[in-house]
Amino acid sequence: MLPIKIKSTGIYVPGEPITNKELIELTGADLNAEKLEKKLGIYQRHMAHLRGIKETTADFATKACENALQNTGIDANDIGLFIVASDTPEYISPATTLIVQGRLQKKEVWASSFDVNASCASFAIAFDNAVRIMATDETINYALVVGVYNMPAYLRKDDMFGYSIFADGAGAFLLERNSDGKQGYISGQNLTDGTQYDYIGVYAGGTKMPVTKELLNENKQGLLSLKPLPGDRNVRLWPMVVNKLLQKSNTNIEEIDHFIFTQINKYVIEQVMEALQLPIEKTSFSMDKYGYTGSACLPITFHEAINKGNIKRGDKIMMVASGAGLAVGSNLFIY
Question: 160 and 27, same structural domain?
Fold first, then answer.
């Protein structure tokens, strides 16, 4: 077990929540509210631009980090590693993490800052990388890893499906070096299939598709769904990833106290728990309050589960996240 623990967590979402009814009023969307609530589990969400709030990815990430630092006695200047996990960055370049570091530390410091973009698996993969970096560099005592999502900024006005699902938010882990042997990081497992890069994504703005007047006229900016995703993708993937990580870490599934999954579909999580023959009480849901927050949904759900008393110190936790591209990340640790 690597001697790195989660010292604290923090979240941030912009503005007052927007219910499904209000979303219809604000966007004119023809939404199936019953499906959103009963199958996907989404009752409300937060969207900065629909509330007239002029905040974007770096704002969300910074505020989640500040929330994680509150009441810890740890100064922002003590952080030696910053990672922002997101596929909705503030800019293509420079990295969003640099903006967050600059806002928190306000100067040149001996620290490492970089982004991880693996679609909605970004946080799980960033968390895994952060722990391994800290474990091999004893000069880093604290790290901030923040998952952040601002996909609504990429939605076109006619993307009613996107408006019904995606939401803004950020969740952060403050990591600390720990040597008591009671808390730490056990293992992680990733899975990749880059042949699926052309299913769904934000393709405009990179070197392949620079944003031009012609591209805007063709309405090819923002989030594009090019091919339908397999309906059973996560129902097939997540049990497989869980079992692979259990095997890798020589752990029995009965030892896991709680599971956190990507929060895009409540029904899928219920199916996965059934496939794993686990009680639903061993997982948590946050899409009812926050909608789908992509790279932020793991830390947000983990934070909520702690506050509800569903996760406590000493619990063995497994997190699994999947994202377009295809990228899947997972983590096993003792909180």
Answer: yes
Domain harbouring 257, CATH code: 3.40.47.10
Same domain as 112, residue 197: no
Q: Compute the mean pLDDT over every residue in the chain, rounded to the nearest whole number.
A: 95
If we measure between CA atoms, which residue out of 190, 178, 189, 191 comes closest to residue 334? 178
Dihedral (CA of 118, 119, 121, 126) sign: positive
The count of other CB atoms within 10 Å of the CB of residue 35 is 12
- pLDDT for 231 beyond 80: no
Structure confidence at residue 31 (pLDDT): 83
SS3 label, residue 210 = coil
Query: Do 82 and 26 have their domain in common?
Result: yes
- By the 10 Å C-beta count (0-12 exposed, 13-18 middle, 19+ buried), 95 is classed as buried
Tell which residue, 193, 205, 239, has the closest CA to residue 87.
205
Among residues 211, 326, 209, which one has the least CA distance to residue 262?
326
d(CA 333, CA 210): 41
Kindly report the pTM of this predicted structure. Answer: 0.96
Quote the number of domains for the chain: 2
Question: Is there a single domain that holds both residue 61 and residue 103?
Answer: yes
CB environment 276-289: b (16+ within 10 A), e (fewer): bebeeeebbbbbeb
Which H/E stretch holds residue 1? none
Residue 320 sits in which domain range? 184-334
Predicted confidence (pLDDT) per residue in 153-162, tens digit: 999 888 888 9
